[in-house]
Amino acid sequence: MNDTDARNQPVDIKSGTSAVSTDKASEHTTAGWPLWEVFVRSSRGLSHVHAGSLHAPDAAMALRNARDLYTRRNEGVSIWVVPADAIAASDPDAKGSFFESPQGKDYRHATYYVKSEGVKHL
Amino acid sequence: MTHPTDTGIEGHGSVPGGVQGFGSGDGAASATRITPGNALRPEDIALDVQRGTARPSEDVAEYALRLGDDALILAQRLGHWISRAPELEEDVALGNIALDQLGHARSFLTYAGAAWGKTEDDLAYFRREPEFRSAHLFEQPNGDFAVTIARQFIVSYYQFELYRRLAGSADATLAAIAAKAVKEVDYHRDHSAQWVLRLAQGTEESRRRMIAGLKLVWPYVEELFEDDELTARLGDAAVVPSSLRPDFDRLTSEVLAEAELEVPQVPGAPGGGRRGRHSEHLGYLLAEMQVLAREHPGATW
To answer: CA of B80: which chain A residue's CA is closest?
Structure first.
């Protein structure tokens, strides 16, 4: 089979996925596979860290694709995948009102305070 | 060979750098560093061959050649999917499986070559078609995605049963290669089974293609389980191919039943790959795989 044949005969899995998927993420998508965000834990005791995103027809395949894409250099011991739609994100344009307020408020840091006399092990 | 970690620094020190922690080869050295881990690599087998600590008998080498050729030819076939799969993610999935297979091929061929003073490259690039010992299933064309999945479904269920048993081989090197490979093939099983289920229960069109794909490649199942003089002579060093059949049949039919598919009732193809008799497909595959190495012998990059 040459290149052209392979390209001209893709299996129609794109439209087929909604028939087998029970995931909410795929219901919103009419073209292509839904987007998933991937979180990888690199070692026991550490937390899962956002690694990137990928496309997959459902959660089971998203986990497998994540394994193939994000742990192929021995990066992980655990993976979470989350439908990208399920993540509510802060507005980048609201950065000022959202994140600048804590600046200059030294008293919110423990180092602002003088250690009381007689307190050990701080 | 029986102690892959014995190769220590010499074995793992040659891993190219770039990522922090590379080259240490100690997966447990740090909680945060990424390391390549400690698994057996083809380079470790080559070292053992060089030192003379791993040397197969003629029969073991012939057997390793069969398994190595199966994996090599399949890796070449699967590699063709890069940039052609239905989605980028599937390019990577099939590419990963291809690379796993290539790793197994390198190990088996490196070991086999030790009997004849040949390297893995000598065996991969400078043998002619009748000298290849792969079964016909592995050289079957990729077809559409469903055909590739059907072929992979058979291959991975067969290889899993084979390597699982070969890990107990009386030959320490074969056992070590199989013990490493079986974990990877376990994932290949899962990948292909997931796709058999999805294609079979997806759309009418995907189901039609899955059924057609299975029917197309199922005749090549037969050859995988044929015993011959070599497998009989090898005894505890090898696995008797026919002994894998009941487990293969049981496990594949479980997946097919879940997918509401029938096990194809088709007559077996004549086979002959183990004796160097191949279908018309292998020659073209070899031409593409070997042309660069033959055009520029010994070239490196």
So the answer is: A3
